[in-house]
Amino acid sequence: MSRIDIAPPAQDHAATFAALGDPTRLSLLGRLSGGQAQSIAKLSTDTRLTRQAITKHLHVLEGAGLVSSLRVGRETQFAYRPEPIEAARSYLDEVSAQWDAAFARLKAFVEK
């Protein structure tokens, strides 16, 4: 049985997709996507999650490059970074175009 090698671009985006695979992290990104950096205290308002749980999710997002953190006094502010999402979207657009081309070839072959 042969092993399938994953192309480097797919590996590059794996952390982004993994981080986005959790509803809490998606919600946090949605709250941060407005452009304003927010503290853990502010992000934990209107949620049942503890600050510790929010912190763990933010660290996963930061590890994937989706947010950045900056220490401001006694608080850490987190800000959304759109570059990984834009890169993943470009990658998905490329994959979609490849599939569209493959389906077009299949359709042409079947309709002969």
From TrEMBL:
HTH arsR-type domain segment(s): 6-100
Residues in coiled coil: none
PROSITE patterns to which the protein is assigned, alphabetical: HTH_ARSR_2
GO molecular function per UniProt: DNA-binding transcription factor activity
Gene3D superfamilies according to UniProt: Winged helix-like DNA-binding domain superfamily/Winged helix DNA-binding domain (1.10.10.10)
Superkingdom, natural source: Bacteria
InterPro entries membership: ArsR-like_HTH, HTH_ArsR_DNA-bd_dom, WH-like_DNA-bd_sf, WH_DNA-bd_sf
Listed SMART domains: HTH_ARSR
One Pfam family, short name: HTH_20
Name of the molecule in the record: Transcriptional regulator
Organism: Labrys okinawensis
